[in-house]
Amino acid sequence: SQTIHQWPATLVQPVGSPLSLECTVEGTSNPNLYWYRQAAGRGLQLLFYSVGIGQISSEVPQNLSASRPQDRQFILSSKKLLLSDSGFYLCAWKPSGSNTDTQYFGPGTRLTVL
Amino acid sequence: AQSVTQLDSQVPVFEEAPVELRCNYSSSVSVYLFWYVQYPNQGLQLLLKYLSGSTLVKGINGFEAEFNKSQTSFHLRKPSVHISDTAEYFCAVSLRGSNYKLTFGKGTLLTVNP
User: Fold this and answer.
1) What would you measure as the largest C-alpha separation in chain A, in angstroms?
2) Is the CB of B35 inside 8 Å of chain A's CB atoms?
3) How far apart are CA A34 and CA A25, in angstroms?
4) For A29-78, how does the pLDDT look when each residue is reduced to its tens digit (9 = 90+)?
5) Sequence-ordered list of residues with C-beta below 8 angstroms from that of B98, at least 6 positions apart, any chain
6) Interface size, chain A vs chain B, as Cβ–Cβ contacts under 8 Å
7) Is B49 on the interface with A (CB under 8 A)?
8) Quick count: other Cβ atoms within 10 Å of Cβ B14?
9) Separation CA A7–CA A18 (nearest Å)
10) CB A50 within 8 A of CB A35
């Protein structure tokens, strides 16, 4: 069966420090991958998605970037964190070629920028 | 572009009472519709989805939702809630034939009281 992992689970970082959040998926090949941010009172916002290795689409301009160095690995990064980057970051995957559009979510990373 | 409106940010109910969480969407093309549930500090779990066919969709944990095309709604219902149903519920849409992006509503916090 397929599983999705995110780490770390929680992270506290000072303003101006770098960031690297990792997401990996097991048990599937060539998934679509997504990064979402959930900020208080704002629901879920799609940040990036990827349909293949090295293919990244950005949904909103921001202080963050994403990379997909391997088929089942999706990384969210920042060179210098801002206070506004605080939130709950969720990674999700979806089978490629599926018409059902069901996304499966990881457990999330709680990021606090101080 | 599509959008999702969840009309209630918070819904408090007593245990064993019925509940309806409202969701309306806006789209110029056909959509897929989803309800996800998020328990505290966890990722999202799919409750149910409407792809086509019968407008009444049954999901996990006794939840169901009805797609109403004329009213562009996809309200979530449960005839009798439990304490364990306390969670945040998200409605989402995806355009058919799109690159599989989900647009989420801002969520409804369901609190079930004894």
Assistant:
1) 42
2) no
3) 11
4) 999 999 999 887 678 889 999 999 999 998 887 889 999 999 999 999 99
5) none
6) 58
7) yes
8) 10
9) 15
10) no
Cβ atoms of B74 and B35 within 8 Å: the answer is: yes
How far is residue B30's CA from residue B37's CA, in Å, rounded to a whole number?
23
The C-alpha angle with vertex A103 and arms to B101 and B6, in degrees rounded to 5, equals 70
Q: Do A108 and B42 make contact, defined as CB atoms within 8 angstroms?
A: yes
Does pLDDT of A6 surpass 90?
yes
CB B34 within 8 A of CB B93: yes
Give me the phi and psi of B70, to 5 degrees please: -65, -30
CA B78 vs CA A13, A22, B64, B75, B101: distances in Å: 41, 36, 6, 10, 27
Residues in chain B within 8 Å Cβ distance of A107:
42-43
Residues of A in contact with B106 (CB under 8 A): 41-43
- Summarised one tens digit per residue, pLDDT across range B18-46 is 999 999 999 878 888 999 999 987 889 99
Cβ-proximal residues to A110 (8 Å cutoff; 6+ apart), any chain: A9, A10, A11, A88, A89, B41
B27 vs A: CB within 8 A: no
Which chain A residue has its CA at the smallest distance from B5's CA?
A: A43
Question: Which of B49, B103, B106 is opposite residue A102, by nearest beta carbon?
Answer: B49
